[in-house]
Request: fold
Amino acid sequence: MLIQFSLENYGPFADRTTLNMVAMDAFSDHLDNLMESGFGDTPNLLRSTLIFGPNASGKSMLLKAMSFFKRQTLFSHRNTKGFSLSVAPFLLDAEKNGQECRMEFVFIADNGFRYQYGFSVCKERFPQEWLHQWNPSTGTCVTLFTRKWNEVNKDYDWSPEEGLQTSIPSFRQEWLGETLENQLFISVAGQKKQVLPEIDPVLSWFRDRLTILHLARIGYNTGDAMRLIENPNGKQWLLNWMASADLAVSDIEVETIEEESAQEEGGSTRRAVSYQIRFTRLRSDGKKIIMSSANESRGTMTWFRMSGYWKDALENDRVVIVDELERDLHSFLVEYLIDQYHSPNLSSKAQLISTTHALSLMDKERFRQDQIRLLEKDRKYRTTLYSLGEFTLPEGMSFYRAYQEARVGGIPIIPERSLFESVVKTETRGGESP
Reply:
């Protein structure tokens, strides 16, 4: 379960910004939208949250930061010496541009413990890395390790001195020295045959529980849906999924196509595998009509490809983070997707976070006030993320009206005067019809 994600000096987020999934005590509606955390200081967590904001306010950059964090946590051990890290500091401030970026996740792993893991990063190295653990029974916090770059010694200072030596006596002598400046210790340690028990739950959470979807990039990724088709129960579930969107699909067939590609080093030939998907529909006279996926709408294919992601997320307690959930989908279907996370019968610990421009989702009949988040750009193009729950709205006022009337910010500043007025007037003066 995700508690919060924080970042600083990344993209438009010049100052420390936090996406907090802890429910606010001020609101008591939509209790089905909450789940218990098991920790007294954060008793209830939100099952979903939506992030609204103008274009270029940082919605996609927020997801990019999370993707970067996950990728480095799991795979930075592959970074070779001298490899430059791809970071994006706030560029519109000379002082910030020269400083490191900072990111941090706070979450509850499968073992019930709460973890606070983060790092700072610049192009050359990870100057800092830290991992803290909270026990759900006692509420006590233990610092598992901190790692800080010492510019004088050109090496890292580690603490606490005991570190994780209780698990592996040779920990400090061998593993610390193997971690390069542009690698995270937790990623390097995760590759050892004897994975540290303190670190394994953290790696497992990022690998198995955190899913980040950029719908514009999953256009050809049908793998999860393919796996559903491979067994009869999964295929029937998929057909029901397609029917829930009123797509009138009676059957789905998949043809696997293997093609030879260029020879690899050593003479072996690599074979590429692709899938030809066909949907069957019934004509008015009952005849089956088979249609290639190439003839289907983008919305139909998006719904098809999302099937596996959604089923997997709800059945396996995933934290799903989506960039523009409404992409290619009717607003009713988007509401249907979200409602799965708010079902009173849901036993899953799954959570949904999505950026969106769909203002129809600002609906107090579906969301608590603290589930709506807004991004606001100031005159210096610095972005702030905040909750609609921080505002006191007039009784009976809808979320959408408060947003539309600019009571809560997070809206683009659009000039009243049209940029085309001069064009129209010039053409009219010339005697031409505008």
